[in-house]
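Exercise 7 asks you to align residues with tokens for two separate proteins.
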Amino acid sequence: MVDNISLKEEIKDALDNATLGRTLGNFCKTYPKRRLNSYQGIDFKETQQAIKRVKTFAAEHVDEMISEFKKNCEARGGHVVVVKSKEEAAKWVENFLKEKDIKTAVKSKSMCSEEIHFNKILKDNGVDCQETDLGEFIISLEGNSPVHMVMPALHLNKEQVADYFSEYTKTKHEPIISEEVKTSRRVMRDKFKNADLGVSGANVAVAETGTVFTMTNEGNGRMVGTLPKNHLYIFGIEKFVNSISDARWIFKALPRNGTAQRITAYLSLYTGACEVTTDKESD
């Protein structure tokens, strides 16, 4: 009963919040038209049915998908761990952090990591984790969890963000979006370069090649995926498709539905693992 009362109070507070109502109201007025415009020149029904075929096949063959993905990823130097509960995931992560002596981490967006409370696992094990997606960074300062899968800080306006940044950096910030973006870049730069671990989500996982795809707009995903010496992907089985060809249908719809874009700024493919070496003689 206490939880029900608390939820009702939260709902009432949200309904009484004029700033929240205005922020979400403006979004709801503009987004549907932007999304509709992004589909101009695209056969929506064809795309919808193709995705249905691709995802239905993956769901009906999920055990085969996992096995095939694991085989192909590990053949290219990666390591795949399959867990069946958040408790099992937490135990594996704890052992991994100890084995690799992880002290700092940078994290790109991963909704699956939210489901298993990954940040809490890091905190409980003494790991300093920096959210690098701008929206996720902002709500971490708010002490909140994502309110939307694609736009996690949708409920906040630039004035509120400026207040959070001012408190975090101990310097005055004006509510100017371009300046707020610059602040986040300054905060992230050293974190990217010095982190022991990078953590990412995945938009698509391709069984036949062991490849994961990420679609981002900020560039932080590539920094997280390439600079730290250890890199961990966290994603659910719903991300599997059979082939690269199947994945193309996801790319037609995902950015249009998520952000009303035809394509995101960055579309990255990672297959297995790689080691970066320096040819000293050529330096």
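Second protein for Exercise 7:
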Amino acid sequence: FHERGIGGHPDGAPPPIAVVTASAAIEPGARLLTDTQVPPLIITTATAPADRKQRLADAGAEVIEAGDIVVTPSGLLRVLAERGLLRVLTEGGPHLFGELLEADVVDELCLTTAPLLVGGAARRISLSAHEFRIRMTRAHVLLDDDGTMLTRWARR
């Protein structure tokens, strides 16, 4: 997650990166913690092992509990809003993305299509317990010389 997209904070500091992990299973030596100007936010649960949370805090992260057993979209957005982080950019994570879509809190989608055919067992970009449809409209399309298409879709 990034607050204010590319622009960052008004004071010029880059936006914090927030990682959602119910188990707090992140290595304290990960680049996320060692190669940053702003301490990352680790959004986790009360039931995540206390020793893992402490190691992440000792490595410089701000560890935030946003749920007892799971981090829900409302819990996630609440703890970010408490820190003044009102615009959120998410990357990756089809389960979390599906939960955010199902909670009706996604306004835009940036989707890159590469000129590759790939096989495997991967599913959709979002996974959720229920089927739903959200109408989107094309906001931008950029086409690279290699055929890569960068698109931005907005809610209608």
